[in-house]
Design brief:
Blueprint: H1 2-23
């Protein structure tokens, strides 16, 4: 469960950074 949550957070952060990179 903890591992799954960590993966979810990591995926969210990566997608957010990618989106920020695309916008800027």
């Amino acid at each position: 469960m903890n591992f799954l949550l960590a993966c979810l957070v990591l995926a969210f952060v990566v997608s957010w950074l990618f989106h920020f990179h695309v916008l800027s």
